Amino acid sequence: MKNYVITIARGFGSGGKEIATKLAEELQIPCYERQILTMASQMSGIDESEFVTVDEKLRGSYLTNLLKAVPFSTVVEPTEKDFVSDTNLFNIQAEIIRNLAKTESCIIVGKCADHVLRKYGNVISVYIEAPRYACVTSIMNKMNVTEERANQLIKKTDKYRSNYYKYYTGGKDWTNPINYDLVLNSERIGRDKCVQLIKEYIPIKLS
User: Which of 78, 81, 88, 166 has the greatest number of CB atoms lying within 10 Å of its CB?
Assistant: First the structure.
């Protein structure tokens, strides 16, 4: 089988990162999330903190950014004034994601990777979600916060991820199942079985 990429989009608290990590271990391939920010910094020479600041979120409102109408395709040169703009930081990450898809099998969490790689035939895109109560419980246990705080974090994180996705995909809805090969409810079948389902789907999609 040629190299392949599995993209994982996830609701906050749904266990998407955990599923991606376990899947990577079972498939013995790398899983990229924060590592892409480091790679983007190394490639561009831009401080990694700039990439962290805009990691799956926009500086300013969705509508304010939309009015700028900046193209999402070409990485600008260091001498240009938009070199550290949000859009250029996204484009640098997108270029890394495309290079990974061409050269190795891996899992990529977030970063609009399903959209960036939408024209690639060796990609399996997955969206992981769970009911709010399950996400709240997960966040409370993982982050040791109250139920109220967990709800606040889920609402805030899912909102900025949604706006980020909508902005860089030309208005697509982040939660629309049409965007993905698989949409899995991690609460209904469990996180380990999500891993198994994705593994079993790989030869079906790529055969």
Answer: 88
Going 83 to 85 to 87 to 93, the CA torsion angle's sign is positive
CA 141 vs CA 51, 109, 135, 153, 195: distances in Å:
28, 22, 10, 13, 21
CA-to-CA dists, residue 132 to 24, 140, 176, angstroms = 26, 12, 17
pLDDT digits (tens, 9 = 90+) for 14-72: 999 999 999 999 999 999 998 888 888 888 788 878 878 877 777 665 445 544 544 45
Cα end-to-end span (Å), the chain: 8
CA atoms within 13 A on the CB side of 133: 2
Q: Token digits for 188?
A: 């209904």
Residue closest to 32 by CA, chosen among 66, 59, 62, 55: 55
pTM of the predicted protein model:
0.86
**Whole-angstrom Cα distance, residue 197 to residue 75?**
36
